[in-house]
Amino acid sequence: DMMTANGVEERPTMQKVFWGCTQGIASVALLLAADEDKPQATLDAVKAIPIILGLPFTFLVFGMCQSLVLVCKEDAGEIPMERKHFRHFIYNLVLPSYVSIVAPFVYAGQIAAKVWEGHVVTYTIGFAAMWVCMIVFLCLGAADTAFLSLAAAVYFVFAFAIGGLRTAVRMKLGISGDMISDVVAGCFAFPWAIGQMAVEEFTYEKKEHSDIKL
After folding, report:
1. Contacts 24+ apart (CB under 8 A), 84-89
2. What is the per-residue DSSP string for 151-172?
3. pLDDT tens digits, one per residue of 30-48
4. Long-range CB contacts (< 8 A, 24+ apart) of 178-185?
5. What pLDDT score does 63 carry?
6. What pLDDT is stored for residue 59 in this prediction?
7. What sign does the CA torsion over 147, 150, 156, 160 have?
8. φ, ψ for residue 44 (rounded to 5)?
C-alpha cells in the first residue's frame, strides 16, 4: 500500500480499501481452492507464482542494466551520444519479425547473403536445416526426453548464429552496440532481431558509413 503511494504515510482511503479488498479476495480464493486432502497444494501453487511472474521481469532487468552501462559510458565520454542505431527498436512490429516467428530462415538467409556475400539459397538452407532439426527433436521429445536436450542445443546454435549475424550487420553498417547484446538478442528475441536487421538499407549504408570504426 505504501509502495504504490510513493512512500506517503497518509495514503488515500480508496487505496486502502482497494488493497484490503484485494488481499481479502485472494485469501478467500485460496481457502476455496484448497483441497481437504491436500491443503498444502494451494500454498505450493502460490509459491510458484512469484517465480513465473518474475521471469519476464528478469529480461527487463537485463535491458535496464545495459541501458545503465551505456549511460555511464556516455557520461564518461567513452562513446559518443550521437551515434548510429538500428532503424527500429529490437521489439518491433515490422512484417519480417512476424514471419521469423515460424520461418526465421527466410529473412536470415537474405540478410546473411547481403552481409557475408554468397548465394541466398545456401544461407537459407543452412538456417532452415538448423530450424527443422530443432523442431524434429522437439517432436521426438514426446517419445524420449533426451531429444529435448538435443533440441535445446540446436536452438542455441541457431541463436548464436543469429547473434553473429547481427554483429556482422552492425559492423557493416557502422551501428553501435556490442557482441553480448547481439547474442542475447539472438537467444531471447531472435524473430524481432531478424526483423530489425531485415528492414535495414544495405544498398547505400555501406558506402555512407564505410569509414566508421567500432
Report:
1. 84/173, 84/174, 84/175, 84/176, 84/209, 84/212, 85/175, 85/176, 86/175, 86/196, 86/197, 86/200, 87/196, 87/199, 87/200, 87/201, 88/195, 88/196, 88/199, 89/196
2. HHHHHHHHHHHHHHHHHHHHHH
3. 777 766 677 676 677 777 7
4. 181/66, 183/159, 184/62, 185/90
5. 75
6. 73
7. negative
8. -65, -35
As given in the structure block, the three cell numbers for residue 109 are 538467409
d(CA 64, CA 187): 18
- Dist CA 95 CA 40 (whole Å): 47
Grid cell locating 118: 554468397
Instruction: Output the CA torsion 189→195→198→204 (10° steps).
Output: -90
Question: Distance from first CA to last CA of the chain, Å, rounded?
Answer: 48
Inform me whether the pLDDT recorded for 210 exceeds 60. Answer: no
- Under a CB-based contact definition with an 8 Å cutoff, are residues 197 and 100 in contact? no
